[in-house]
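Transmembrane protein 208
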Amino acid sequence: MAPQQKGKQGTKGAKQIVEENASTLKFYRNMAIGANATSLIILVFYNSPISIFLYLFSCAVYISTYQFMAYMAKAKVTENGQIIDSGVDLNMEGGIAEHVKDIIILTAGCQLLSSIISNYFWLLWLLAPARGFWLAWKNILSPYIFQEAPVDPAANEKKQKKLERKMRRQH
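Predicted structure tokens:
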């Protein structure tokens, strides 16, 4: 483990981003393959139509999220191998890749728990749209709905002078 640095975090080089993206993609690919293999082995012995449908749906989720992350992380290189653009850093905090990785983790958890324990664990997938709504509320809807009205400084000055005149008359 690297020692903790105080102060500003250093920037990553293009080569480091490309290497970390490759290892991140490999990790999440292996997670998806492992969950799928385990679920498929259990599905062979216990195959209900809903289980088969949800297994195929989870395969589609894995494929689409992995392809999306691979597209985001695609590096552009010159003919002689120099990196022009490293692609999006998949390990950046607060980025879209963080949410895509969460979908892969949630899908793997749902798939493993439902294949080992009970099909009711597929209901955990409802956490994804709930989180999506929460993020939309927190970042888009709430600030838009509850923003304060713009204050006109000229109107404020007029009101202040009017109040001062009113106060002088009362005294």
